[in-house]
Write a structure and sequence with these properties.
By secondary structure, the chain is mostly helical. It has 23 helices and 2 strands. The longest helix is centred in the C-terminal third of the chain and has 27 residues, at 391-417.
Length: 483
């Protein structure tokens, strides 16, 4: 374990992160809200910590191994939550405790979107900008951004990229060099964010609101400058723009890059995971729309379609935008939406959840097992896009499912022991570990009323979900630290 190299990289990454505090300072000065000082103090504090970490290890030049990469990623996301809480803790508006400030920052960076703040409409614009900004940086991954920048400082980024990138596409390169891959992903991310901003602005939002909600839609973060979320605008056009870009945020950004580079939109139709994601969304939206209209919750099928499509895409992509109180919808719809967050979007997207590709592999493995019961001697491979999947990948997916649900169960029981009722505990863990934000019961709107101990459980769940469980659990295994 090259701890000196790890320390050096953590110091450099904190120094780079401190620079992001300059953006809300600029917003405060331009809009004149007078709330620049928390970010200036946070800038100096984070930069100082980064320097203290970097200076003693600045001479460490060993190669970064994959195990070191996992350590950097896990520790940096923990440090990011603490550092990101600094301006929220320093600011007197909103007046947050240490626990609440860390919860809000971690929720933003992990693109969970669960909040403890009430009265968002009255906050200074700089604070609101900061909340939108952190989820945008967290969406594509600050680590992926670092991969693009660290080679300038003489540090390779492949180990970090493998440790950070979610899903079974960790070794996929879009370009010959991993640095170029990171830059390509960020270029697509920025391009789609700009297009989403334009869409919201043309739909009637102010430029500030358009940028902020575009940050949230593409990062599938779900923070909004308003307590009513996108329901504040009560606009079918705004809902439509958000639905389209939340869906695009749920698609593999490598697929976006390939389709733009060629250019050839037919690549989407050839991608097995995208097709599964698309048709699952269509089926859920159709079923929910008909049920809401039939039940009489909305006066017309068109209105039911508007709200069903928005919330189905919002929750499945783990964005968490809302325009209605879906927790009060009839029948099994609230539970169905929460269960959708377990599926999430595509691997290589900004979404949380377990990813469509894993569920697709598990489903096809189940079908293959049923066929083997009828034909015990037959060789029945599991295929995707006509190609057999190696048994090692299938075993890895099965192991991931096992770890995910064990961690989920432990966290849910912990919340119940802390006094939360069964519905609240179940949905709170689902909302945090799947990085979706809203839940049911006492956490249907905010996490403000839950005990501090339960918020720390939520913080652990959000980081674990963002790192897809394994990167955090690795730190708890003796084999990881063994020489």
């Amino acid at each position: 374990m090259n701890l000196a190299v790890v320390q050096r990289i953590l110091g450099l990454m904190l120094l780079m992160f401190s620079l992001t505090m300059l953006l809300p300072i600029g917003v405060a000065l331009i809009l004149g809200d007078g709330h620049w000082y928390p970010f200036l103090l946070a800038f100096f504090a984070i930069a100082a910590v980064g320097l203290l970490l970097w200076l003693p290890a600045r001479g460490a030049r060993q190669d970064l191994r994959l195990r070191d990469g996992f350590l950097v990623v896990a520790v940096f996301w923990i440090c990011l939550g603490l550092a990101g809480a600094a301006p929220l803790l320093i600011s007197d508006v909103p007046d947050l405790s240490f626990t609440d400030a860390v919860f809000e920052a971690v929720s933003g960076f992990t693109t969970t979107g669960a909040t403890v703040i009430i009265g968002l409409d009255e906050l200074p614009k700089s604070i609101l900008w900061y909340r939108q900004q952190i989820q945008w940086f967290g969406g594509m991954g600050i680590i992926v951004l670092a991969v693009a920048l660290l080679p300038i400082l003489g540090i390779g980024g492949m180990s970090l990229y493998k440790a950070e990138t979610p899903g079974p596409m960790k070794d996929q390169k879009l370009t010959p060099r991993i640095t170029q891959t990171a830059k390509a992903l960020w270029a697509v991310y920025v391009l789609l964010t700009a297009a989403c901003t334009l869409g919201f602005w043309l739909a009637g939002m102010s430029l500030f609101d358009a940028i902020g909600h575009a940050f949230a839609a593409l990062s599938t973060g779900g923070y909004s400058p308003y307590d009513a979320s996108l329901g504040h605008f009560d606009s079918a056009v705004v809902d439509a723009v958000a639905t389209v870009f939340m869906f695009l945020g749920g698609v593999n950004f490598a697929l976006h890059f390939s389709a733009l580079r060629q250019p050839d939109l037919r690549l989407y139709a050839r991608d097995t995971e995208f097709l599964a994601f698309f048709w699952l969304s269509v089926a859920i939206i159709a079923g929910m729309s008909v049920y809401l209209w039939w039940h009489g919750d909305y006066p017309s099928l068109w209105t039911a379609l508007r709200y069903a499509s928005f919330h189905a895409v919002s929750i499945q992509t783990t964005t968490g935008f809302t325009t209605a109180n879906f927790a009060a919808w009839p029948g099994a719809l609230p539970a169905l939406l929460i269960l959708l967050s377990f599926i999430g979007g595509c691997a290589g997207s900004t979404t949380g959840g377990m990813k469509v590709i894993r569920w697709l592999l598990v489903f096809r493995q189940g079908v293959a097992d049923l066929k083997r019961l009828v034909h015990p001697s037959a060789e029945i491979p599991v295929k995707l896009a006509g190609r057999p999947i190696p048994q090692q990948v299938i075993s890895g997916v099965a192991g991931f499912f096992a770890m995910y649900f064990v961690v989920f169960g432990v966290l849910m029981l912990t919340l119940m022991m802390l006094g939360l009722d069964q519905v609240t505990a179940w949905s709170a863990v689902a909302a945090t570990i799947n990085n979706v934000g809203p839940g049911l019961g006492d956490v249907a709107v905010t996490f403000h009323s839950v005990p501090d101990a339960a918020k720390w459980v939520g913080i652990v769940a959000m980081i674990a979900g963002r790192l897809e469980i394994s990167a955090l659990l690795l730190l708890l295994t003796p084999a990881f630290w063994r020489k």
